[in-house]
Write a structure and sequence with these properties.
heterodimer; A: about 290 residues; alpha/beta; Rossmann fold; 2 domains; two-stranded antiparallel sheet; 14 helices; 9 strands; B: about 450 residues; six-stranded mixed beta sheet; 19 helices; about 55% helix; about 5% strand
Chain lengths: ~290, ~450
């Protein structure tokens, strides 16, 4: 077991995350603590906008660790994820040193100076505590998973010209996925798994209170209640936590005092981004459509 | 029993319920227990879930097995022992209404314990506890209006909308209470009947392994959530061209820019990326009674695909075919509307694939172009009619690809009045009985 982050207990994780404005449920705090204690990567799945990425950011902020982020996309490859040689600079170096022998030039152009470190290598070489966030790993191609397996398994990288670079301080790794593609068993097996769903009503109320403290508390409660009603409907995109917060801010700006049909109707666009979702919600909530 | 033995027994029970945790995971789980200790049961639950689970769909089964193997206590819960032994149903319902009105989770848990203890005891013949029986006595679903009334007295001013939202909330709490009662009954039964037997029989099936043909209403409602993202993936996969840009035209601009890093020598040519084509999908769905469970699922799939893609045409048939593209909206009585508004039966009401396919080939063949993918959903049970192989061949030849998803076990294809094997010679046919199999079809079988 290799501890990666200076947490002492589950409650400690909770309070430290709370101090940077991330209210974690018991499940989240427990899993973060375990990932840190066991030194295993943490794979987070869940619907968009429930705070998967925010969790990694909160951990790095709470422990004042550096955050290194690898945003995955279709076609991300080794030279974007791990490292790359700076070809242009190497060429300049070769043309600049006319008199030296080839051997000298060769050993020189494959030194650290010409190495472009990408997120994975940066996280491994960092001597300070680091949070490595591999965001939307399901968007990357299957081939990159092999690379991740190697790096996340041993926390070392072999560069043929330089030798093997071992992690000085094992980073705290967070992978997030929206499940657009099934991740390979091998990758899943190496990670602790956490599914973040929409928060329970009272946790969401607390989140709202901490993010929008000016909002009247009765109104906060009814906002959460209406959002939960919406989530129970068959919508194309259920409103996320961040949209709940946006909505609360909107209501504050509108100066609404209670949540009646008219107010909801006027501001529905903040939480529902598809027209047919809005129509359906209007129908099911029995709101009279505004003219 | 020592802790490692207990953990192994727990993992074995999980495997019996389709959660394949390996030895490595079991070791992780052991470390989890070492780090967390056994003091806080809910944290232990979350910790073990993190180490042993690989997907959110496994969670329900995991929770049930966990409750059996790491029970909250032994015997009757404290709450039941402290309650008046004369307590009757009416009094319990009163307390329950109050807890629902206050949103008191702890109170609900306590009352669930009492409910099972008082009203869930099975007869003399089989020892054990039944959550179903207890719920039948207490009838928590009828407490909604009472709880709302109790709330209404001290809350006002939110208007009709507020009330509806509150009703939704209380409905959620009632659901939660039912779940608690079931879990409690399982725990008490496990004590008298032994853990292994309970874990083998009483744990709910993982959602993605539920057979479409036998799914109940609640499972179907849950399937809706699972199917939606899958439908999206299915549609994009069908539409996708091979992304690998190993052929096609050379992108001059990119090639020149890339050659900068090799001193102006274009070592690595860059290809123009093919544009992804817009998906064109044609779905043919059997909506007859023989595949009722499956066509429920079919409709979920179709609704989900329709909401994601504009270029999709949907046809339904029993023994005649009709286009239902415009009928499809996200609502629950879609089946009824199709049967009422579309001409899908002629004369009798048993399915006839041959006639439906022939009609399609005559009337709607222009719906299929060389760019479209066709998916046929049905069991290919033809009631001994002529199968119209040539019509299917015509459809298959015209489309880019044609797939058949069959909700029957592959072993029974071709038995009785099934013409599945004959159709399978012409188009790719896949067994599709569960969401898991649909997922496999989407991710493995379709080329990207």
């Amino acid at each position: 077991m290799t501890r990666t982050m200076p947490f002492t207990s589950v409650s400690d994780v909770k309070s430290q995350l709370e101090s940077v404005g991330y209210l974690a449920s018991d499940a989240i705090a427990t899993t973060v603590f375990l990932a840190s204690e066991l030194g295993k990567p943490l794979l987070i799945e869940g619907p968009a906008g429930v705070g998967k990425t925010a969790l990694a950011q909160a951990v790095s902020e709470a422990t004042s660790a550096a955050l290194v982020r690898l945003q995955c996309y279709e076609g991300v490859d080794e030279s974007r994820a791990l490292y790359e040689w700076n070809h242009a600079k190497q060429l300049l170096r070769i043309t600049a040193g006319r008199d030296e022998t080839w051997d000298d030039a060769r050993t020189d152009i494959f030194s650290e100076e010409f190495l472009l470190t990408r997120p994975l290598l940066t996280a491994i070489r960092n001597s300070e505590p680091t949070v490595l966030l591999i965001d939307e790993v399901d968007k990357a191609d299957v081939e990159i998973e092999g690379l991740l397996l190697e790096v996340l398994g041993d926390f070392q990288v072999t560069i043929p010209e330089l030798g093997t670079i071992r992690a000085l301080h094992r980073p705290f790794v967070v992978l997030t996925s929206n499940a657009t593609r099934e991740l390979s068993e091998a990758l899943r097996r190496r990670c602790l798994f956490l599914h973040i769903d929409f928060p329970e009503a009272d946790l969401e109320e607390r989140i709202l209170r901490s993010q929008v403290p000016e909002l009247d508390s009765a109104l906060t409660a009814s906002v959460v209640r209406v959002v939960n009603t919406l989530r129970a409907m068959p919508l194309r995109k259920a409103p996320s936590v961040s949209e709940t917060i946006d909505w609360a801010r909107t209501l504050l700006a509108l100066g609404a005092e209670t949540l009646d049909e008219k107010v909801v109707n006027e501001s529905l666009g903040v939480i529902l981004k598809h027209r047919d979702d809005q129509e359906r919600a209007t129908k099911l909530l029995d709101l009279t459509p505004s003219v | 029993m020592s802790l490692p033995e207990r953990l192994v027994e727990f993992v074995t029970a999980l495997r019996g319920n389709g959660i394949t945790a390996g030895t490595g995971e079991t070791v992780d789980a052991g470390q989890v227990i070492e780090v967390l200790g056994l003091d806080d049961r809910e944290r232990l639950r979350e910790g073990l879930a993190a180490a042993l689970l690989r997907g959110a769909s496994q969670r329900a089964a995991f929770d049930a097995v966990f409750d059996i193997h790491f029970p909250a206590g032994a015997g009757a819960p404290e709450s039941a022992r402290d309650t008046d032994p004369e307590l009757d149903v009416a009094e319990l319902r009163e307390q329950l209404t109050e807890a629902l009105a206050n949103g008191d989770q702890a109170g609900l848990g306590r009352l669930a314990g009492v409910t099972v203890d008082r009203f869930g005891r099975l007869g003399v013949v089989t020892d054990g506890w039944s959550g179903y029986m207890a719920l039948e006595r207490v009838q928590p679903q009828n407490l909604l209006s009472g709880a709302l009334q109790l709330r209404g007295s001290d809350r006002s001013g939110t208007g009709g909308l507020g009330n509806r939202a509150e009703a939704q909330e209380i409905r959620g709490l009632i659901q939660e209470f039912r779940r608690m009662v079931q879990a409690e009954a399982l725990r008490r039964s496990a004590e008298v009947r032994g853990r292994e037997r309970m874990a083998a029989n009483a744990v709910p099936k993982q959602l993605d392994r539920v057979d479409f043909l036998t799914a109940n209403a609640q499972q179907l409602a849950e399937l809706r959530r699972v199917v939606r993202p899958l439908a999206r993936r299915l549609a994009t996969r069908l539409a996708a061209r091979r992304r690998r840009h190993s052929r096609g035209r050379i992108d001059i601009r990119k090639t020149l820019r890339r050659s900068m890093s090799t001193g102006g020598v274009p070592i690595e040519p860059a290809w123009e990326k093919p544009r992804p084509t817009r998906p064109e999908l044609v779905l043919l769905c059997d909506v007859s009674g023989s595949v009722a469970g499956f066509s429920n699922f079919t409709m979920l799939l179709v609704q989900a695909m329709k909401s994601q893609f504009s270029k999709i045409r949907v046809f339904a048939f029993v023994n005649a075919i009709d286009e239902i593209t415009d009928l499809i909206e996200d609502d629950d009585d879609l089946q009824r509307r199709i049967h009422a508004e579309a001409k899908i039966t002629k004369g009798h009401s048993s399915s006839d694939y041959g006639r439906s396919l022939r009609e399609f080939a005559v009337a709607y063949l222009d719906a299929i172009t060389s760019r479209s993918a066709v998916i046929i959903l049905g069991d290919a049970r033809n009631n001994y009619g002529s199968p119209a192989i040539d019509s299917l061949a015509e459809i298959a030849a015209r489309s880019r690809r044609t797939f058949w998803l069959n909700p029957e076990r592959a072993a029974s294809w071709g038995s009785g009045d099934s013409v599945a094997l004959q159709y399978a010679e012409i188009v790719e046919m896949h067994e599709c009985r569960t969401v898991e199999q649909l997922g496999q079809f989407v991710t493995r079988l379709l080329p990207v």
